[in-house]
Amino acid sequence: MLRAKLSVVCAWSLAGAVLLLPGCSFTPVDQTADWSPNKIYAEAKDELSSGGYDKAVVLFEKLEGRAAGTPLAQQAQLDKAYAQYKSGESAQALATLDRFMKLHPASPALDYALYLKGIINFNDDLGMFSAVTRQDLAERDQKASKESFESFKELVTRFPQSRYAPDASQRMTYIVNSLAQYEVHVARYYYGRGAYVAAINRAQVAVTDYQGVPAVEEALFIIVKSYDALGLPQLRDDAKRVLEKNYPQTEYLTRGFKASTDPWWKVW
């Protein structure tokens, strides 16, 4: 009798286990299944404005699929890129923008896409600047700021009347000054370590590629000092004449390098 009862209990336990099995593969319910595209967009914008960037990305992706082929889907793609950028996913944001520009080359929002792409690389570059001010900078790559410049340049060239063009132009000026100052910093780095040929090469990049920016004055001075250290008086004097012609009031020849406690990239 006891054995029979145990069999019944075991049978019910097994049945219960079988009934519970579906719970192990529970599939989350999509709460947006019955939402209209406009509702999804409104909820995504709310998440975006409140700092819920990861949630906003998910909603914008759903909206891209639900409203495919409509202007709302294009807007969702741009907003998704911004949300990815704000959440620290710069690479994904840039990929989203590249995809947008490839799929919608005639979009009226193309100027914004270019501007946002420039901003992402611009800020990524500044973040790098602040992180390496005390590191060996001799071989640092300035790819981000160069790509930022190209995006802003395309924006200003193709859409000169865009609301984003004035800010893009100012950022282009900053980037050029920054890139030139970076080359001068590296040239000074090499000069201070006795690598005079390397110092000349890096200073020459600033002189050749970034004409007219403030950093060129110091670049020419580094070339003068490096040729002097190499025992090449004719080349030294040629470089000195160029320096004096372009900067007749230069103080580098009388005072030498300027001492500064500011970060090397702070060019204002």
How would you explain this protein's 3D organization?
The longest helix has 28 residues. With 268 residues, the protein is an all-alpha fold. The N and C termini lie far apart (94 Å). Helix 2 packs antiparallel against helix 3. The N terminus and C terminus are likely disordered. It has 12 helices and no strands.
Portion in strands: under 5%
According to DSSP, the number of beta strands is 0
**Spans with pLDDT under 50 lasting ≥5 residues?**
1-21, 126-140, 261-268
End-to-end distance: 94 Å
Average predicted confidence as pLDDT: 84
Number of helices: 12
Radius of gyration: 30 Å
* Mass-distribution shape: elongated
Structural class: mainly alpha
Helix content: over 70%
- Succession of helices and strands: HHHHHHHHHHHH
Major beta sheet, specifics? none
Show the helix and strand layout:
Layout: H1 2-20, H2 37-49, H3 53-66, H4 71-86, H5 90-103, H6 110-131, H7 143-158, H8 165-192, H9 196-209, H10 215-229, H11 233-246, H12 252-255
Helix pairs in contact: 2-3, 2-4, 3-4, 4-5, 5-6, 6-7, 7-8, 8-9, 8-10, 9-10, 10-11
Entry summary:
Helix content is 71%, strand content 0%. It has helices spanning 2-20, 37-49, 53-66, 71-86, 90-103, 110-131, 143-158, 165-192, 196-209, 215-229, 233-246, 252-255.
